[in-house]
Amino acid sequence: PPPPPPPFTDTATTEIYTGDTSSAASDVYKRQARAGVLLDESTLFYGTGGLAYGHVTNSIGYRFDTDGDISEDSFTSSDVRVGWTAGAGVETALNDRMKLKFEYLYVDLGSSQFLNSQLLNVFDVITVDAGAFSDVGFHVARVGLNITFDSFLAGQ
After folding, report:
1. CB 47 within 8 A of CB 88
2. Dist. CA 110–CA 88, nearest whole Å
3. CB 91 within 8 A of CB 99
4. Whole-number Å distance between alpha carbons of 127 and 121
5. Alpha carbon distance 31, 83 (integer Å)
6. Is 7 left (phi over 0), alpha (psi -120 to 50) or beta?
7. Tens of pLDDT along 139-152?
8. DSSP state of 97
9. 153 by DSSP, 3-state: which?
10. Residue-wise pLDDT tens digits, 109-128
């Protein structure tokens, strides 16, 4: 005859699904320098680059499904990241006091692991080693109007 089965047999099947994930940057600050060439007497084409830093919030939702018993949870983290920015632009004088500017920047706040832990479902049936990474970079297009006020003050 076959041997008897072990006293405890676990036949549960657990599937883990990730839900919405997001990374958002706020309060982004840049310190940059620019250098360029004059295309004519009133138009400057320039490159720019420098330091960028900002607050990054990451979140991930996940769901455990153990033979139809579903539990859901989420994880959120936030930190301040330091990265870089680079771009190019053109600035042209409209008159002796006003300049119109068009600028493109790419901002990269780097990548980091924001989840590295064991996730435990609410049924306390299973723990899973989990990790999540975020890579935060974005594009910025700016249009600006620079006005020189010192010519107004010089007349006083």
Report:
1. yes
2. 21
3. yes
4. 7
5. 11
6. alpha
7. 999 999 999 887 55
8. S
9. helix
10. 988 877 666 655 555 555 66
